[in-house]
Specification:
This protein is an alpha/beta fold and 308 residues long. The protein has ten helices and 14 strands. It folds into two domains: 5-222, Rossmann fold (3-Layer(aba) Sandwich); 226-291, Alpha-Beta Plaits (2-Layer Sandwich). The protein has a six-stranded mixed beta sheet, with helices on both faces. Helix 3 runs parallel beside helix 5 and helix 4 packs antiparallel against helix 5 (138-150).
Length: 308
């Protein structure tokens, strides 16, 4: 990662009436870095990104993009930033080509001038260039929105939950594209509620209720996980979850697909756990060792935050 700070956020705070969306948020993103802001709906991601793209004023604190202040130098920022909001915001009644031409014209450029930058995306939607944007599939809308955000060759890409609501194949294709843009020197800050996408970033900020709980590389976030963890599976998964949550005050149990991740600060005695489960009517439970993932880490940090 380049040590030059391309995005800098210092003590940003923002409230909507009685709800505080951001609490003294501070972080920086290096030039050419792919930085992820990971958190559930309502965590403050969209508010943060709207401030960074000069669409919203903070209550306090400062932020800069490529050295330009988001409040005082907003016009300069709008020329160097490509923004893809979480909600599809292109013109539904304009065709694919008309949308792209419109955004290119706004920035004083043409599709031809920056075609090399968007070529890998645009060739996938070019067969639909005469189709109204509102009639595209979710994955195609995503590719069109990204093309429009890139058409003026921005220094920084700001992508707010770009893969929400699209299929798994489109999600993978999208992240492959982001890596390609990063390799071309574009700084990327992307938000997502999908914890599995954290591993695709250089560094991540884990955010909940407007508080950034941790910033690190995905690997180091996992290394700092301090609990012992087991994976359990049973045909009666929901009754098993309830029983596990009554096992010990220090233990935590969460559903992960068809399994339960069960953790404790101390080493878990599997034999003792099996006896407890048998006594509670769970006689066909598969128990195995488990490596933590980003979601385990997020839940542990959230619990620690709630206790403090």
């Amino acid at each position: 990662m380049n040590s030059e700070k391309h995005i800098e956020v210092l003590g940003l705070t923002k409230s909507y009436e009685k709800h505080q969306a951001l609490h003294e948020t501070t972080f920086s993103v290096g030039k050419g870095e792919l930085f992820g802001v990971i958190g559930p709906d309502g965590a403050g991601k969209t508010t943060l990104f709207r401030i960074l793209t000069t669409l919203l004023l903070p209550d306090s604190g400062k932020a800069s993009m490529a050295g330009f202040d988001v409040v005082k130098e907003y016009k300069k920022i709008r020329n160097i930033v490509g923004y893809m909001p979480g909600r599809f915001s292109l013109y539904h009644d304009l065709t694919v080509e008309e949308n792209l031409t419109f955004f290119a014209t706004i920035f004083g450029t043409t599709i031809k001038e920056n075609y090399d930058l968007i070529k890998d995306i645009y060739i996938q939607i070019e067969p639909f260039k005469n189709r109204p944007a509102g009639k595209l599939s979710g994955g195609m809308k995503q590719k069109l929105a990204l093309s429009c955000a890139l058409i003026h060759k921005p220094e920084i890409l700001v992508l707010d939950e770009p893969t929400t609501g699209v299929d798994a194949v489109s999600r993978k294709e999208f992240w492959d594209l982001l890596k390609r843009f990063k390799n071309q020197g574009i700084t990327i800050i992307v938000s997502t509620p999908y914890m599995d996408e954290a591993s695709l970033c250089d560094r991540v900020a884990l955010i909940q209720d407007g508080h950034i709980m941790q910033i690190d590389t995905p690997a180091d976030v996992i290394k700092k996980y301090e609990r012992n963890i087991l994976s359990l599976h049973s045909p009666k998964i929901h009754p098993l979850l309830i029983s596990l949550r009554n096992y010990s005050p220090d233990c935590k149990a969460y559903l992960f697909g068809q399994n339960i991740h069960f953790s404790d600060k101390n080493v878990i005695d599997k034999k003792q756990l099996e006896i407890f489960l048998n006594d509670n009517g769970h006689d066909s439970v598969e128990i195995s060792d488990c490596e933590p993932n980003i979601e385990d880490c997020f839940l542990a940090l959230m619990n620690n935050k709630n206790k403090s």
